[in-house]
Fold:
Amino acid sequence: MGEEENIKLQLIQRFAFLSENISIPRTRRIFAIVPANNFRQVLEYATTELGFVILCTITGLDEGPTLGFIYHLAKENGVMLNLHISVAKEKPVIKTISNYFPAADAYERELVDLLGAQVEGLPAGNRYPLPDDWPAGQYPLRKDWKGKVSEITEVKENA
Amino acid sequence: MPERNFKVSIGPQHPALKEPESFLLTLRGEKITEMTVRLGYNHRGVEKACEGRSYIQCLYLIERVCGICSHSHATCFIQAVEEIAGLAVPKRAQYIRTLIAELERIHSHLLWLGVAGHEIGFDTLLMYTWRDREAVMDILALLTGNRVNYGMNTIGGVRRDITPDQIPQILTAIDALEERTKYYVKVGTEEITLRERLSGVGTLSKEDATRLGAVGPTARASGVDRDTRRDDPYAAYGELDFRVITDNHNDVYGRTLVRLGELMESYKLVRQILKQMPEGPISVKAPRKVPAGEAVSRYEAPRGEDVHYVKANGTEKPERVKVRAPTLANVQVVSHMLKDGYLADMPIVIAAIDPCFSCTDRMISIVDTDRNTANTIEWNELRSIGINWYRKQGIDFTELNRNFKIARELK
Amino acid sequence: MTALFSIFVFPGLLFIAVSGLAAEYIDRKFCAKLQNRVGPPWFQPVADFIKLLAKEDIVPQHADKATFTLMPILAMVSIITAFLYIPMWGTQALFSFKGDVIVVLYLLTVPTLTYFLGGWYSRSVFSMIGAARSVTQMFAYEIPLFVSILAPAMLADTWSLSGIAEYFSSHPWMALLNLPGFIIAIITLLGKLEKVPFDIPEAETEIVAGAFTEYSGRLLALFRMAIDMELVVGASLLAAVFLPFGTHLGPAAGFAIYLVKVLFVILLVSLFRTVFARLRIDQMIAFCWKYMAPLAFAQLVADLIIKGAHS
Amino acid sequence: MFRPGKMIKEVLGSVLKRPATTTYPFGDNGEIAKNFRGKLRFFPEKCICCKLCMRDCPSGAINIKKTAEGKISAEIDLAKCIYCGQCVEVCPKEALESTTEFELAQLEHGKLKVTFSADAVGPAKAKA
Structure:
């Protein structure tokens, strides 16, 4: 039995609700769909007991009615655990994980700026990556966002 | 030195920074007491743009996320796409990708060495390393056609094969570079002013490196033994034999040694790849539509681990592409390293993570002219403001332009 | 009439301006050669100078206008004045009096002070940091530089530069004794000229251009010219004090030899600035006080002992 | 172990060497890789107007249209082109080719649009 299977078993043993939601598409890759309420337990278990000590990044997804967040965790030996949570778009509130991973700070700010997630407990700081005068309520990575592209028009000679 | 607090804004435009980003430093004399970082000046909306393009178009867009590590991003992205599409990339293509990857690492590390020299006022080192770097740039141009943005990858393989007559040329260049790198190791370890400026600067303990999630040579110089090439092998790395260089100096000097060591390893790797490269096809036919699915791809770029996440929805275009460039993981680390350092060490500490902010930010904001009129000037408007300003000063380029035009037409 | 000619044309203003530009060219070209580059064409310094003269002068809003505009001129004037006391060919300077060594060294300190004042009254952060660094650095290099030049003066038992040149011209072997002093002087001269490894006050990658950050147009042109002239004057001073060879061959040959000596010093300066990294201000001060100053004093003591034994 | 001025030997050795840099324009010194992806060239007589290149072009720089029966013209916007060479790759008839021409700067924006049409003899190019 491979290490991935092992981790899958351990996860299911601890969290029964994960039994149907873990897939292993290839070696060293584990995807798990986690209910948003249980996310912190799973994260804590994965980081402390299973040795997933590296946070690769956090991906934000627009899934229609919900916003999805994938936390890409990795072990020192290259095994990756991708925890996928979904929250309602009307109230896209997630808790910060920067207490576990200080580096998550930047990734979470990205979610705030680009997807309009509300991250609870995010330490104060500059916004990233959009400019300070970016209009409120505009979230570029949402599927319904259509920024008006200002074309560089033809330059008239000696205007 | 006056003992009062200065606020110094380094950036968005500053000679020490090759790309726009802003560091607000609070100084007490020459010591940095506080600093905040503001990134995002290079935000070009690449991730959003990918959603409106087909996979092959995305590939060239992703390749242009960064000039220096263009192959890294392209390969990382293409690996994820191939994984979703279930394409079996031919062995030879894997080897060619690895070869370009290592050549890219060589040119990137030599570039870094020069930049590091420049940041501490040692321009001679810059001139010499960049001169020698031309050897590897020539090889890259020979193999791929271009010095950067190689365009080597395509979905399902690579676009250009390595011909037998190119191999001796690569080997000669690598031998010459190895000689030179040995010399730079000597310069780095023996030249006293260089050592003085690098040692004990920007220290980062192993604990902090792990806690803050440092990646790449920055982490490895603090004794964190992580390298995606070994830990999560991709392309041909699983079949190659190489050492992961770590160092325990925990400072900029250590980072220099790690990069120099990695250069030496890369030379060995290039020789190995050329020796072991199997014969065979270089690509498989790829479908235009990629079945629904998701994949995460990791890649050890010269600056550290690059992570791409691709989600496909069964159409020609990806549903979501996420790029995590190595520098973003290291920004936190820089803030930590600069605390209580000297202003004079600021450039080299920032340079020591080999920052690449264009990678990090990835996205010009697609300016919404309706809402943002006050702050945005159209190109034409800007141009006419410029021309009129000069006219007011009594300088008019119209005549000059006309003469120029006539001269060109005559030619 | 001849006095006016000497002050404005030769060996005064015009000559030193031309040789300053030539020195900058030689410095840049040689540095490029050392770095395996092509380097600038011969007219580059002149072209830069003319370009700057044609540019707009911008005085920052919060700057002290009078000080800001006065400083470049003051820097230039003090350097030209210093030049008049340095013997070029032969052993006799244009003007000379007892104790002119002190005056020349004093006049050569003035430019650093003008950088400080000009930078400080620019009221820009980078200028102020650069200005503060200029002065901090000055305290480190001035002492070894002074002492290393005073040592030959002690040996020659005179306080006039022409006298020193005269003495060593008749005792050429004595000049060799001062070789360590020459090396100290040339290293500290790098500090005075603010060149690598001591270009801390104008470290480009840290504080943009230091005290000169806010300068533009004519004022910057004057400052740059002053720095170029300082290179020539510094090199001439070192040549007169430490390299007193061929001073009795008559004006033509003497002048040629003078040029060779100055060229030698300039090339040494270029070489040094090519092979080192820029030090940090604390390292620079530690280096000057720990090594340069004691060595300079040792030179002085050695010279005194020899003088005692000689007489 | 520590040697101040470690590079002195190296730099002095360079004085008599030929400089590594050259002045621009290159003249005979310039060397461009044979497979460099520079300005595109289009052969109207080979084109079958399948428009695969237009579909794959990441920046929408190519515009191919039939001007008359059997006559095809292509407009390539060099300002938009990112010189990736994907169009050359995808073309089934080799009607497109990357040349080694790289000095493409123009004073006027409009001159960056290059039209290739079959009207003229051979693969001639007329600047719009």
Summary: The first strand of chain A starts at residue 22 and ends at 26. The radius of gyration of chain A is 19 Å. DSSP finds three helices and seven strands in chain A.
